[in-house]
């Protein structure tokens, strides 16, 4: 019975950690977008740091496409895709809950970002995603987009490190010891 309790506590902590990360991403995204909507007119631009104003600007931008302004004007299709992505992340999280922490962090970042942009799309007062970070000639984006991209990088780096660890373990010894076998399966 004690093993079941430990496993359940571990799962609760893992899900709680994922929920906390997703909630923080969502809150930061929505608060920043709210500030932009209430302080800047559509397309109004400010330069918070004048010395780098030509490189870094804040702009109130209307995005009816996906991340970084791609596929403009497909709002309802993108809303459906956003809902499917959120459901997919939630369902998939149960498969990685006992796995490496990078999976949970990556999925939580992806979930928070997807929910942030989805909330804009389904908001009847908006119907579009508010973007506001403008760096150089790069398309305008928001904190939800940042979280999605960072989540993808966390996943790629985590998988790369795990692969390197497995290669290292298998090359350290030609003998298949119980310890090496356990490490490869983690």
Keywords:
186 residues
Biggest β-sheet, characterized? 3 strands, antiparallel
Strand content: 5-15%
Q: Over the alpha carbons, how many angstroms does the gyration radius reach? A: 21 Å
Shape: globular
Helix content: 55-70%
- Which spans of ≥5 residues are poorly predicted at pLDDT below 50? none
Mean pLDDT over the full residue set:
87
* SSE pattern: HEEHHEHH
Task: Give the strand tally.
Answer: 3
| Tally of domains | 1
Count of DSSP H/I helices: 5
Strand order of the largest sheet: 1-2-3
Instruction: Give the structural class.
Output: mainly alpha
- Give the N-terminus to C-terminus distance in angstroms: 24 Å
Explain the overall architecture.
The mean pLDDT is 87. The chain has five helices and three strands, in the order αββααβαα. The protein has helices spanning 2-39, 75-96, 101-122, 143-172, 178-184, and strands spanning 45-46, 56-63, 129-135. It has one domain. It has a three-stranded antiparallel beta sheet. The chain is mainly alpha-helical and 186 residues long.
């Amino acid at each position: 019975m004690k093993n079941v309790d430990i496993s359940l506590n571990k799962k609760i902590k893992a899900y709680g950690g994922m929920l906390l990360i997703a909630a923080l991403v969502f809150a930061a995204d929505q608060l920043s977008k709210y500030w932009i909507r209430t302080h800047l007119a559509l397309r109004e631009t400010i330069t918070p740091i004048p010395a780098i104003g030509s490189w870094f600007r804040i702009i109130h931008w209307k995005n009816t496409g996906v991340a970084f302004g791609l596929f403009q004007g497909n709002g309802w299709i993108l809303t459906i895709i956003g809902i499917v992505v959120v459901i997919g992340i939630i369902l998939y999280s149960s498969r990685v809950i006992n796995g490496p922490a990078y999976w949970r962090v990556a999925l939580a970042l992806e979930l928070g970002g997807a929910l942030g942009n989805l909330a804009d799309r389904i908001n009847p007062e908006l119907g579009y995603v508010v973007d506001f970070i403008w760096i150089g000639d790069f398309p305008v984006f928001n904190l939800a987009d940042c979280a999605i991209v960072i989540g993808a990088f966390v996943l790629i780096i985590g998988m790369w490190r795990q692969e390197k660890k497995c290669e290292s373990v298998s090359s350290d010894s030609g003998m298949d010891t119980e310890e090496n076998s356990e490490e490869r399966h983690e």
